[in-house]
Structure formats: structure tokens, C-alpha cells
Amino acid sequence: xxxxxxxxxxxxxxxxxxxxxxxxxxxxxxxxxxxxxxxxxxxxxxxxxxxxxxxxxxxxxxxxxxxxxxxxxxxxxxxxxxxxxxxxxxxxxxxxxxxxxxxxxxxxxxxxxxxxxxxxxxxxxxxxxxxxxxxxxxxxxxxxxxxxxxxxxxxxxxxxxxxxxxxxxxxxxxxxxxxxxxxxxxxxxxxxxxxxxxxxxxxxxxx
Length: 207
What we know:
Blueprint: E1 12-20, E2 25-32, E3 38-45, E4 49-54, E5 60-68, E6 73-77, E7 80-82, H1 90-102, E8 104-116, E9 125-136, E10 152-157, H2 158-166, H3 173-187, E11 195-196
Parallel strand pairs: 4-9
Antiparallel strand pairs: 1-2, 2-3, 4-7, 5-6, 5-10, 8-9, 8-11
């Protein structure tokens, strides 16, 4: 038996969208279960996201601290953003987010991991990139607004982040998954064996 996620779609008898927001919406599907019964399934429809674990020459990860209203906390995170344009190349989106949020560019890009953040209630898919060979971006800094006005920045050693994750001190899912994936990759075939930056992503196909 191969342990691998596979695509599958159960029959939908009816669907409705009771809420449409600025970036996401809520959908209700009537889904046929294996025993023939039909049940309602409500879930958030999300365009998808990218995140960047940017690793500098001192083995430190570039972090951003940002207020997140739904959880009423300021969270340490890695740069991330929405795939605002349908079919957008996720690498290009990740490069844009790294520039806009941290005014940093990277020469070496790999796919670190792909995840569904909350597949029981949201279809958000996130591609987390590993970015290395960092340098300051050229030109003016991106003009921020809203929560981003209050951003804080840090570069933190990988080992320190791993300790914080396991101690329950760091909670952002992309940070947690990214750091632990980095450690697993190093313990396995190494970072150069990671998928190329333009690797296929069936969850969010792109040109």
C-alpha cells in the first residue's frame, strides 16, 4: 500500500454560496455519503497561498511578527500571501511576497512542502518555498497598510525556532510546517534534493 494522498470527488446534489467576502467565500454542498445519505458540508473557498522560509548564510530564518485578529495574537510568521490571480505562478507570487513584506530577494528557490491548512473546513492550499542566497532588494520599499503598518522583523536560528515550536510558543502553521520540514529535509536527502521551484502543484495548477 502506497501512503499517498489521491484525488477523489464524491457526488454533489446541490450547492450554494451563502457568503461572499473580499478574498474568500463560504460554500454549502449537499454531498452523497458512501451509504447513500446526503449531508450538508460548509467550507471556506480560498484562492490558495504561498509562504517563504527564507534562510540566510548564518542559518537564520527571516520572520515577521504580525497581528492576527481572528486569534487575537501577534504571531511570528514567515512571509506569505494569497494567490490573488487565478492560475498565477506560485514562485512569482512567493518572490513578490518576500520583496513586499521584507524587501529581500533570493537567488536559490526550492519547494519545501505543500499543505492543506484546514482540509476539514477550508480548501486553502499552501506551497511553502525554501529561499536561500538572500540579499537586500533594490528600489523603494513596498508601501504597507492595515496590519502590516505594525510589522516587526527578526532573523532567528533554525534550532531556536524548532525549540519554540515544540514548546508551544510558536503557532503559525506555515512557520511550524516550514521549520520542521527544513529539519526533516536536512536529515534526509539534503536541501538540494528538494523539488525545483517550478514543480507541478495539482492543488493549484498554474501555467
